[in-house]
Specification:
Number of domains: 2
Subcellular location: Cytoplasm
Distance between the termini: 56 Å
Bound molecules: adenosine-5'-triphosphate, magnesium ion
Shape: elongated
Helix content: 25-40%
Largest sheet: 9 strands, mixed
GO cellular component, one term: cytosol
CATH superfamily of the largest domain: HUPs
Keywords: ATP-binding, Cytoplasm, Nucleotide-binding, RNA-binding, Thiamine biosynthesis, Transferase, tRNA-binding
Family: Belongs to the ThiI family.
CATH architecture of the largest domain: 3-Layer(aba) Sandwich
Structural class: alpha/beta
CATH class of the largest domain: Alpha Beta
CATH topology of the largest domain: Rossmann fold
Main location: cytoplasm
Strand content: 15-25%
Length: about 400
């Protein structure tokens, strides 16, 4: 005997009224995408339930994939058997024995199929007795059991589930449009991308790269981070912007203490132009209030002036430790702390303004024409499609 189904429960989406159909369809599609690599595994829906038919695939491996799909409240491994008391007993025993870290249990029978001739209460007792006499070390606890062995008798069959595994919650990726994530090699921006995805936002990423000051390995690190994010959603296009020339020009032509602010404004301008080309309606950053000079309220106000696209800043109110905790949980931390330089750490002004003003920055920018370099950077963008499978599937070179 083996678990042959994974039951998927979705919670928050039930609140979404008119959109519910679209959300559920998307969730089913997203789960389907994640289990594609398992031959014959299928995601199905009947009577308000979603489940994966394992068709012989390793239950744990498929579960690991499903656990990372946003929009799922909880999951359980399940066994489907005929509506037959002996078979139900065997399956319940299997379910209990294969629940992890369990000492106490409770059996809950739900008889939806009233043609089944043993009543719920009688079957509850029968199964409880069967489990106790065929196992060691378990006791029954009807109020706070470690595991509830659920037996659901339906028309077509009986389903038996044991442990409930928490899902990630959130909304299915793709139900809230798309955003362009400014992805550095740091700790924060991958976490920001993850949190945006959790709200159903699909992402593309943009990275500003300054060779030879920033190395190939620094670029690879960003691609690796994007790859880790694909585990929670779909493939991600990463737009790599050749930033060296523009960055050098900024640091040569602009007053030192304003160079960083102006560099950030350039990033937003270029990011917005990618959005326009790719039909993306917002930007997402790992900005956080008060961490560093570029992230004071004045600084945000001045940098934000160059775009009127919505900017999603999921980390804006978080403490660094909260961010690190999430980074560890989602598997980006190890990569983020690799010591490869990024374009912002290479060109660090000696004393950046912590309170840059819009009027001053606008004045300085008016004294030099950056248009040619901005356009050159945009024209030089290399787009790399990162999937959660092979290393790098495609590189489709210059898009513009
Ligand atoms: P992170 O940990 O994400 O690097 P940070 O704490 O180092 O962030 P900043 O360096 O001020 O903060 O960067 C703020 C945000 O600007 C980043 O979270 C990211 O969204 C964006 N950003 C910074 N550098 C780059 C880059 N080279 N390419 C793309 N986006 C960048
Ligand atoms: Mg950084």
């Amino acid at each position: 005997m083996e678990f042959d189904h994974i039951l998927i429960r979705y919670g928050e989406m039930a609140l979404k009224g008119k959109n519910i159909k679209q959300f559920i369809n998307k969730l089913q599609h997203n789960v389907g995408q994640k289990i594609k690599e398992f031959p014959d595994a299928k995601v199905k829906r009947t009577q308000g339930r979603m489940f994966v038919l394992l068709n012989g695939n390793d239950p744990k491996a498929v579960m690991e994939k499903c656990k990372k799909v946003f929009g799922i409240q909880s999951l359980s491994l399940a066994i489907k058997v005929e509506n037959d008391v002996e078979k139900i007993k065997d399956a319940a025993l299997y379910a209990l024995r294969n629940a992890e870290d369990v000492k106490t249990f409770k059996v809950s029978v739900k008889r939806i199929n009233k043609d089944f001739d043993v009543r719920s209460q009688a079957l509850n007792q029968m199964l409880g007795g069967h489990l106790l006499s065929n196992t060691e070390g378990f006791t029954v606890d009807v109020h706070h059991p470690d595991v509830e062995v659920k037996v659901e008798i339906r028309k077509e069959a009986t389903y038996i589930t044991s442990s409930i595994v928490p899902g990630l919650g959130g909304l299915p990726v793709g139900t809230s449009g798309k955003s362009l994530l400014l992805l550095s090699g740091g700790i924060d921006s991958p976490v920001a991308g993850y949190l945006a995805m959790k709200r159903g936002v699909a992402i593309e990423a943009i990275h500003f790269h300054s060779p030879p000051f920033t190395s190939e390995r620094a670029k690879q690190k960003v691609l690796d981070l994007a790859k880790q994010l694909t585990k929670y959603g779909k493939s991600i296009n990463v737009h790599i912007v050749p930033f060296t020339k523009l960055q050098q020009e900024i640091f040569r032509e602009m007053p030192d203490e304003y160079a960083m602010t102006i560099m950030r404004r350039m990033m937003f301008r270029i990011a917005e132009s990618v959005c326009r080309n790719e039909n993306i309606l917002s930007l997402t950053t790992g900005e956080n209030l008060g961490q560093v000079a570029s992230q004071t309220m004045d600084s945000m106000h001045t940098i934000n002036e160059v775009t009127n696209y919505p900017i999603i800043r999921p980390l804006v109110t978080m403490d660094k430790l909260e961010v690190i905790n999430i980074a560890e949980k989602i598997g980006t931390y190890e990569t983020s702390i690799l010591p490869f330089e990024d374009c912002c750490t290479i060109f660090v002004p000696k004393s950046p303004k912590t309170k840059p003003k819009r009027e001053k920055v606008n004045y300085y920018e008016s004294t030099h024409d950056f248009t040619a370099s901005i356009n050159e950077a945009i024209e030089g963008i290399e787009t790399i499609k990162i999937t959660d499978k092979k290393e790098i599937e495609e590189s489709f070179g210059d898009l513009f």
